Amino acid sequence: MSNLIHSNTAIDGILQGMSKVAEVVGSTYGPNGRNVVIEDEDGRPHITKDGVTVAKSIDFERSDWKIGASLIKDAAIKTLKEVGDGTTTTTILANAAASMGIRMVKDRNLNPFKLRTYLDKYMNSIIKYLRSISSPIVPSDKETLLKVALNSANGDEELAEKVTDLFMQIGKDGVVFVKNSEILGVHTQVIKGISIDRGYVSPMFCVNGQSSLTLDNCKILIARKVIRDYKEIIPYMQEASTEGRPILLIVPEVDNTVTELFLTNVYNGVIQGCIVQAPFSNERQDDFFQDLGIASGAIKEDKDKSSMYLLGNAEKVIVGRYDTEFRGLTHDKSAYKRHLAFLEDLVQTQTDRLLAEKAGERLAMFAGSIGYIHVGASSETEVLELKDKLDDVIHAVKAALKEGTVPAGGVALNNAAHLLEFEYSMEGNHIPESYESEEDKAAFEIMVRLCKIPYESLGIPVSTSKDPTKVVYTALKNAISVAGMLFTSKYVILND
Question: Which of 142, 353, 429, 458 has the smallest number of CB atoms closer than 10 Å to its CB?
Fold first, then answer.
């Protein structure tokens, strides 16, 4: 059953839901923010300061509160998807913008759509200002990188130092993977060469109780099709055997009988080698085969790209249970340079965030700039807390490397608010009557007040720290978006 309820009652309830979420999430804000303890499905505690994790865990029985919570979660999740950080700021700003917008529409009898238009105008001015003061950053600038990492890590110096050092090694296009570890603490690792999260198809490839297999001076057979018949790969096996070299078969899928025959030849001493299933699927798998083919010298010219079987070379291949590393890949230098330039251009021109991220991962994998952070703790709860914190720090550093930094602690937004006030003051050669309408004036007041909130919320801002520019303006943009959707709505339909 659905009930139609006028905005004066239902939207007030939605605001209450937003406010309650913002209150809890806001308690985690800044370097002095507090943790939140969340009970998981099994009744175990998950302790975190991650804004979006906290927001996602909050639910209400009241339908109007539930809608409010969902709206503010959506804003935070959108920010997370776009920049990977800034979810707490988004939550705080969205709640404030929605509350002010709804109150002004009601109290001043404003046109909500005009108000939204003027809000966008002032928001664009703020974003323009933030970009104008943004300081570019390079991976070698440890001091600035450390400031970004330290701010996002809530003052955890050891964690910030480790992430900073990792990015200094892998560069701005590097990819970082966080993995569980049996060793206590946080440990980093940089792999020089291509690394994939796929291991051997059978543990039988490892002998003498070893957990990994090392293949020196290895031939790499890239099979871009499912192999059902062992006869298809016999010529390549014979070539490797004749040269006295091991061979790695990397394939989308392989029949069990093919694996068994391959293993039989390994155990009989005919060949040395292993089979690994290729990562990804469909187009991403095709891209991977192309990248590995060029990096290993299996592809030298464009015409090679259509071949079902490609044969490359590596100085060393290390195959584990869950991952495989290719080191010292031998390739045609001109083909490699052309493909590297192609991937770099792909990253720069991609407008969709998810596609851009995949392109970045592809570039990092091809260029061999992969970093691992291994996390170990005495309990699963601690591991989850560390991984939440690391995720924020990694994304913050990547965002900073992409678009630069601005002063943290709400300082940049606060300065932007004062600039707006100056422009619409007597000193700025403007007079209050210059507002085009009441909606224009209200939008100005909302934006100025909104941009001061993060600075005031922290009490004593950390002005020496740095925030990624993109994180700051993305949080503002998504907050305005969700607020605008709400104050331009009049009726609410609730399901009992």
Answer: 429
